[in-house]
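This part of the workshop introduces the protein records we will be handling. A record pairs a protein's sequence with a compact description of its fold. Comparing a sequence with its tokens is the quickest way to learn the format. The record below serves as our worked example for the rest of this section:
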Amino acid sequence: MVYVHESTRSIAFNGQKNYTFQRVEELLGIVPADVRPKHSNQPVRQGIPGTARYFHLLQEFEYDITNILEQAQLNAFHTKHDNRQHRCTGEALNIAQSMLQSIYPACPARIMLFTAGPCTIGPGMVVEPSLREPLRSHKDIDSETAKYYKKAKSFYDGLANRAAHNGNVIDIFAGCYDQVGLDEMSSLASRTGGVIILSDSFATSIFKQSFIRMFNVDSSPEGYLEMGFLASLMVKMSKEIKVSGLLGHAISSKGKTPSHVAETEIGIGGTSSWRIAGLRPSSTYALFFDITNTQPLTVVAGEAYPQAYIQFSTHYLHSSGFYRLRVTTIARPFDISNRGLGQPGQQSIVPTLSQSFDQEAAIAILAKLSIYKAESGLPIPDLTRWIDATLIKLCIRFANYIKEDPHSFRLPEAFIYFPQFVYHLRRSQFLQVFNNSPDETVYYRHVLMQEDTTNCSIMVQPTLTAYEIDKDEPEPVLLDSLSVNPNRILLLDTFFHILIYHGETIAAWRKQKYQELPEYENFKQLLEAPRQDASALLIDRFPLPRFIDTEARGSQARFLFSRLNPSKSASDIGSPVAGAVVLTDDVSLQDFMEYLIKLCVSKKAENIK
């Protein structure tokens, strides 16, 4: 059942039915919009029958809503021991959205869904109540044998579009050890600018702290919420370029300026403006542009390179109640059609591009684009080949080398780390779904699509810091199995996890409680240092990452070893080389780079598309 609470009572809806927007208005006694007074453009708070019974200012109704939450009880209907709980999540969301559309059309609002299991009845149903039917896996989805997947996804997609066009944000908080149908529901958050929090239960600090941080306020005296609503992003550009599309949590506003829009679409394309129902300080969007002039351009030595101009206009409703407009205009060189050094007396733009290349921004964009392709149905093997081809073409264009001579291969300084970023992207949970459920995969991808360059870089290639007893300061080390040492403590930051790993010797000393003896004060400080640094990382991170404290041979050390480059793998067991052995079939970074270089300098590279 779906309960809609009035001030003094609640109304129950049949969760197995799909109520229309008009039927919800009728049953709740809400006056339809077409018969309301038309003298005001503002949403009506009082005076319209049905309105004041369901929506109140918090300060007027805080005591009552607290009582409702405290008196909430488990489902009174008996559930068989071999059945899942009956949940009509889809219909509850439908009724909530219908109420907002009816009472507050085109008005900012947030719908927050707290779910501890999958929808088992009614529209949006993910799985049958019987536990004999397992939840769908990646294999079931890929082979199209997931019984309810397409129908449920279609239902939630339609609901997401309704919410986005009405300016409503939908947030999803999942607290369950099992899947809750997040894969099917993901568009609810991704198309409205909402957040997704995935935790084992609502009693964990991951949920509690993340939920509290949802309501962070700014530093102004008034303490406004760090939220924006009803946003629109418009891009204008000079005639030399056109916009291909946008990647991020938004929808197209259908506002198309033919002279500005490229024929080739990337992401949400076919337009030069987008609607964003909800904004946060970390909200980030990637835009793609196409050059209209395909003829090589050259510049006489001493003259300035031709520039293309791009202007971004973001208009949104601040939580203070006032609209704000932010305009950013940039100029960039745009001719990248010529790889060579140009004719005598002329110069190419390639040297300038190679010097201004941002490796972290590039991998963030490549990761977002890869996720978009994966979610659009491109099989992972084909996606991996596309990523490899993109890297090879980039290296061919900007590297210096002699044909058929791998030892001559040199990348400009601004490109040195990009191949290893790509290596870690290929192995990341964003593309490799093995050992992750569909809900986990969607969660990881959703977070990456909304984060900035720095956080995306950490997600793709986590940071690893080493602490040693004979060194005063911690030092960053390679994300490599060779960095694992018995006398070290390692701090791993994957964005989603903060992990402290104690080497064998350190772990043995800790078990013997040397840190409690006065003469081993330096060892006590060594143990405390990574915890203090981990605490600093946890302060502002959203969502709150999972904290893991483990040691050599510990069960949770797998979170570290799964991210390490396997320089020392199973084939090296018994070798005198230092470092931990990583049991994996993945190629090492060294082998990856060797093959990449050989391919780039070979004649085969000319056939790569």
Notes: The radius of gyration is 27 Å.
